[in-house]
Amino acid sequence: MPITVAPFTPEELAEGERAYREKAFEWLDQHWHGSRECPICRSRSWAIGELVLIQVARYSSLAATAWRFMCPVTCLTCYYTWQFDAAAAGVISVGEGGAGHGVPIEDQP
Ligand SMILES: [Zn+2]
User: Fold this and answer.
1) How many angstroms separate the alpha carbon of residue 19 from the centre of ligand 1?
2) Taking the domains of the chain in order of start, what are their residue ranges?
């Protein structure tokens, strides 16, 4: 299925970006119970990056089976980055516009 992006205004896109980062930091505050030190440089300064779209494959068939929006969390000192599934975490609503930016996405059979 092709990916399409709805024609949002610049103001709607800016609001979506703000809401995305706010929800991502809320999710981190609720779920990040361990040390918040970077495992590489020990900094405690993190940034939420732009969403990353990855294609997931099942090992049994090695065929791509789904797309996932990942939320990158990057150390502001050394740029070490880890990520979590933004839709599964409730940070974005995929296919409903708003923070999902109207990008419809479906798992492939
Ligand atoms: Zn670091």
Assistant:
1) 25
2) 10-100
Structure tokens at 7: 């024609």
Question: How many CB atoms sit inside 10 A of residue 108's CB?
Answer: 11
What tens digit of pLDDT does each residue of 2-56 get? Answer: 444 556 788 888 888 889 999 999 999 999 999 999 999 999 999 999 999 998 8
Question: Could you tell me which residues are beta bridge partners of residue 64?
Answer: 57
Separation CA 78–CA 7 (nearest Å): 36
Give the mean pLDDT of 73-81.
97
- Beta carbons within 8 Å of 26's beta carbon, 6+ residues apart: none
Instruction: Give the distance (Å) from ligand 1 centre to CA of residue 81.
Output: 8
